[in-house]
Write the structure tokens for this entry.
Amino acid sequence: MPSKRSVTYSFVDASNIIYGARAEGWMIDQKKLIDYLKTKFKSEKTYFYFGKIKGNYKQVNFLEKLKNFGFTLRVKDVKQIGKKFKANCDVDLTMDMLLDRDKYNKAIVLSGDGDFLPLYEYLKIKEKKRIVIMAFSKITAKDIKKFAKKEFIAFENQKYLLERKKR
């Protein structure tokens, strides 16, 4: 019986990686990121989850560039709750991972958010998916690192490949 072709999808929790990089003192070159995901993992589809502030034209231009690079955008308006700003894209990421589960064998998830653990466990155990987590070590939940084991890639170690150089 012929083996099924391996298909990889990537899921980028933008706030998790953008703020993670910023906390480490660098910025991510999103073109380099999508090229990296396509080259290293053969990612056929890369979702990008992003919270947009209404009226922010810099973000509109940023999102247009991302679309041109090949990202599949999932954008939500940011809501202000007290002094905090939230977009809550986690449910969108979860839904895409579940709804597309028959289209991929391997998922590359760029987020260290511990809320995703039940999703990862379901996909790995029940759906037999390979889950690779790529996130910043310092802000990745311990449960996620424990779950991922050797399938955890420390995002900070990819800085030399993914950093946006100042012009």
In short: The chain has one domain: 8-149+156-162. The first helix runs from residue 14 to 23. The chain is about 40% helix and 25% strand. The chain has a mean pLDDT of 94.
